[in-house]
Input
Amino acid sequence: MNKPENRYFTITRSGTLHRAAGLTDALAFAGDEGYVWLDYIDPTAESLEELDSVLGIHPLSIEDCLNGDQLPKLDLFPTYSFMTFTAFEQSPDGLLGHELDVFISKRFLITASNRDADGTPILSALEASIVRDMDTVRLGPSYLLHQVVDTIVDRKLIAVEKIEEKLDDDEDAILKDASSYNLGSLMDSRRDLQLIRKSLFHERELVGKLVRKDSPFLAEKSLIYFRDVYDHLSKYYEIAENAREQVTNLMEIHLSLISNKMAEASNLTNAIMRRLTLITTIFMPLTLISGIGGMSEFTMIVGPANWRTGYLILFIAMVIIGFINYLLLLRMERRAARDYPQSR
Output
């Protein structure tokens, strides 16, 4: 279990980022012109307790922060808006989803998130992004919110692109040897894409509400940035949907190749059985004749002096009968192939 970490920043109108020692110091340094960014990493009930007492955050919102299984949503309160996003990463254990909770008002932006599988905070690069785009971020919390949302949305595209690369490798493996391919790999990709698709769908609805001004804490001029994020979410949703269709196509290709191999094995078995039947049919009357010829009565019939000639005639008759049977069976085979070509 990672140790909780609280980070307090003040962003002034003049364009400076100041790290404060605590929440009270950050609010005091911001004054009337600036605003604060509070970043809670691996939050606990104790670390978020100050939000209720100092900023008036509703306990239900704090409870949602501690429940890591929330779908993206937007909750509106009189003094702030609360929203939930999902950040994805590809780890050795598969696709991992991390909840990101955000509070926004005129005076603050609060983020609560966890660490990646390697222990890196989800928003570790945000501080450098703020410094780089300070001319925009200093205008208000809604501009910083765009930085946060844009970071999370871009991570979704990275996750989808990695799945697409994996699907390309899966396609090569299927075409190379479908019988030894593990179909569970495609099922894992399909499940991961379903999770990303669900998150993209709900986040697109969330950002759509922000663009429609459902939250009163977003500056009018900042809405154009969220329209851009909405377009990205719609595009990434289509990419994820196309990747899901690719999974379905690969499963059909795998099934088709396996069916073809089974059909080839079945055809080979049928050909072998047809040859065995041909041989059995040809030798069946010959076996009967040879059985009769091997009886002592046959020797008595031809006589002791003529047994050599009798057996020679018997052998010639057997050859003729066998050849005639072969020609008859060959003719029947050709007629069957002409009348029922699909049976070949």
Summary: The chain has a mean pLDDT of 85. The beta strands are 5-11, 17-20, 35-41, 73-76, 81-91, 94-104, 108-113. Residues 5 and 41 are 5 Å apart (CA to CA). The longest helix spans residues 223-293.
